[in-house]
């Protein structure tokens, strides 16, 4: 009798596992129906853009509590002017755009979900021209437009919660689990603004989309080429002490070659020069 009961229990368990596996696959399939802006690449996105924006606002407030904003009005206005032009080109009116210049000698810049952009004064030593600064800001804004952080968060949720990841992510409001994953992905806490490394695909995508929106805003796409050549030289000069920005944005020769290969077509299709650079 016990043998038959055990067999029945095993069959029932097997069916439950199959149903769970099927539900898991369907969840991933539905989530993967999202497509990246501009490139139309398939994406795994388990959280809504609204959730990302809410988390981005919270993280932005944390950054502003811990970091000192620059009082150099000329450079502050420069960052804001370039940012506003790129924001218009990005055509995301639902984003609550903000542009902040942080007084710190670090080679760093990032954009949080919802359009909260932070540029550190240390990077201005490399991005000396407006075209180069537009390349930096366009690249970081592109990460937000393409929802690369949402992809990283979705992958982390899948790894932590498996088949329950979708229900965790899609629960009412912003769950503590989602908030924790966001904090891990965006370095909110002890090291504000130190993001997890993007994948090569995401970096390449941000290079391309960043050049597109900067060009639409009136900035020369060649600024990306001169910028990343400077970054490559700077990274080599630092040896083992690579700045956080370059540890997550590797300035390889292949990357520079890819930018150079795309630059002409982007200029021809999108570049809209202006005279008040």
Describe the structure.
With 277 residues, this protein is mainly alpha-helical. It has one domain. Helices cover 61% and strands 6% of the residues. It is built from eleven helices and five strands, in the order H-E-E-H-H-E-E-E-H-H-H-H-H-H-H-H. The strands form two sheets. It has a three-stranded mixed beta sheet with strand order 3-5-4. A two-stranded antiparallel sheet has the order 1-2. A hairpin with a 6-residue loop joins strand 1 and strand 2 (42-43). Helix 4 packs across helix 8. The longest helix has 30 residues, at 2-31. The radius of gyration is 22 Å and the shape is globular. The termini are far apart.
Topology:
Blueprint: H1 2-31, E1 34-35, E2 42-43, H2 49-66, H3 73-90, E3 98-102, E4 109-112, E5 116-120, H4 130-145, H5 148-161, H6 165-169, H7 176-186, H8 200-216, H9 222-238, H10 244-248, H11 253-270
Helix pairs in contact: 3-4, 4-8, 4-9, 5-7, 8-11, 9-11
Quick rundown:
This protein has 277 residues and is mainly alpha-helical.
The pLDDT mean sits at 81
Spatial strand sequence of the major β-sheet: 3-5-4
pLDDT < 50 runs, ≥5 residues: 189-194
User: Which structural category fits the helices and strands?
Assistant: mainly alpha
- The string of secondary-structure elements, in order, is HEEHHEEEHHHHHHHH
Distance between the terminal alpha carbons, to the nearest Å? 85 Å
How many beta-strand runs?
5
Instruction: Characterize the largest beta sheet: strand count, sense, and whether it forms a barrel.
Output: 3 strands, mixed
Q: What characteristic shape results from the CA principal axes?
A: globular
What is the tally of helical segments? Answer: 11
Strand content: 5-15%
The domain count comes to: 1
- Approximately how much helix is present in the residues? 55-70%
Which value, in Å, is the CA radius of gyration? 22 Å
């Amino acid at each position: 009798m016990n043998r038959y009961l055990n067999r029945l229990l095993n069959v029932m368990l097997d069916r439950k596992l199959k149903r769970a596996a099927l539900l898991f696959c369907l969840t991933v399939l539905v989530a993967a129906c999202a497509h990246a802006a501009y490139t139309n690449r398939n994406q795994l996105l388990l959280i809504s853009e609204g959730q990302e924006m809410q988390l981005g606002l919270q993280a932005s407030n944390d950054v502003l509590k811990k970091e000192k904003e620059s009082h150099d009005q000329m450079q502050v206005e420069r960052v804001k002017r370039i940012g506003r032009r790129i924001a218009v080109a990005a055509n995301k009116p639902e984003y609550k755009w903000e542009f902040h210049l942080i007084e710190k000698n670090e080679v760093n810049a990032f954009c949080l979900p919802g359009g909260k952009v932070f540029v550190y004064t240390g990077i201005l030593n490399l991005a000396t021209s407006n075209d180069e600064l537009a390349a930096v800001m366009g690249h970081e804004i592109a990460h937000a437009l393409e929802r690369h952080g949402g992809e990283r968060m979705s992958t982390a949720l899948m790894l932590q919660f498996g088949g329950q990841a979708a229900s965790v992510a899609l629960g009412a409001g912003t769950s503590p689990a989602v908030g924790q994953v966001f904090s891990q992905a965006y370095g909110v806490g002890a090291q504000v603004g130190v993001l997890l490394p993007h994948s090569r695909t995401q970096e390449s995508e941000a290079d391309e989309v960043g050049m597109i929106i900067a060009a639409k805003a009136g900035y020369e796409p060649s600024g990306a080429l001169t910028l990343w050549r400077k970054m490559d030289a700077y990274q080599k000069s630092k040896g083992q002490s690579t700045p956080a920005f370059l540890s997550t944005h590797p300035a390889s020769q292949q990357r520079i070659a890819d930018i150079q290969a795309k630059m002409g077509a982007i200029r021809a299709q999108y570049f809209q020069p202006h005279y008040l650079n």
